[in-house]
Structure formats: C-alpha cells, structure tokens
C-alpha cells in the first residue's frame, strides 16, 4: 500500500499552452505501467479555463468547489457545481465561472 500524504507532492502552475488564467495542478496519483490512470486536483481561479482539447480514452471530472462552465463540441455551455461529475470526450472549455454567480 502506498499513502501519499496531503501536501507531500509539489503543486504546479497550469501550462500556458493548455490554460488561460491562473490554474494550479496538484498531482494525486500516477499509476505505473501498464495502467494509464493519472489523478490530479486542478484549481481554476475565477475566469480561468482550458484550451480546446480532447481525451480519446475519456476523462472524469469531479467538481469539489466553486461553480464552472463546460462545453463539448457542438453543444451548449453547461453550468457545473460542487458534487457534479462530468465525463467529457471532447471539450471546448472547462473553467471557473467569473466572480459573479452564474444565472
């Protein structure tokens, strides 16, 4: 069994070629081969977002705090809130909503 203590892994800044605005990435787990699982806690400051990208093998997002917006290719923007679980394949943008509460 491996236990990674809270704060034992360094946080990183979301790279500018993948994110707009201030984004912090806290690694949680990187599985050993042949597994492909990677887990991270990603924190978006208000107004920050991802660039258009896809996850051919899928991705699961668990919203733990704040309100955000997500959009998949060809669909409307959806609001996401704490407790929501999102499983996108192709997303245009994922990010923290502006400081004002969404309508």
Task: Describe, in plain words, how this protein is organized in 3D.
The protein is 0% helix and 41% strand. With 103 residues, it is mainly β. The strands form four sheets. The chain has a four-stranded antiparallel sheet with strand order 6-11-8-9, with no helix packed on it. It is globular and about 45 Å long. The termini are far apart.
Which percent bin holds the helix content? under 10%
Number of strands: 11
Low-confidence stretches: none
Overall SS class: mainly beta
Q: Report the sheet with the most strands, covering strand number, pairing sense and barrel closure.
A: 4 strands, antiparallel
- Quick one: overall form? globular
- What is the straight-line distance between the termini? 45 Å
What gyration radius follows from the Cα positions, in whole Å?
14 Å
Mean pLDDT across residues: 83
List the total number of helices: 0
The helix/strand series, from N terminus to C terminus, equals EEEEEEEEEEE
Give the strand content: 35-45%
Strand order of the largest sheet: 6-11-8-9
Please describe the structure with a list of short key phrases separated by commas or semicolons:
four-stranded antiparallel sheet; mainly beta; 0% helix
């Amino acid at each position: 069994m491996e236990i990674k203590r809270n704060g034992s892994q360094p946080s990183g800044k979301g790279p500018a070629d993948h994110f707009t605005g201030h984004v912090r990435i806290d690694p949680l787990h990187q599985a050993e081969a042949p597994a492909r699982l990677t887990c991270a806690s990603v924190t978006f400051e208000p107004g920050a977002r991802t660039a258009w990208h896809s996850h051919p093998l899928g991705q699961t997002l668990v919203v733990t705090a704040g309100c955000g917006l997500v959009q998949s290719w060809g669909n409307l923007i959806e609001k996401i809130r704490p407790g929501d679980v999102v499983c996108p394949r192709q997303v245009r943008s994922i990010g923290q909503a502006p400081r004002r509460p969404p309508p």
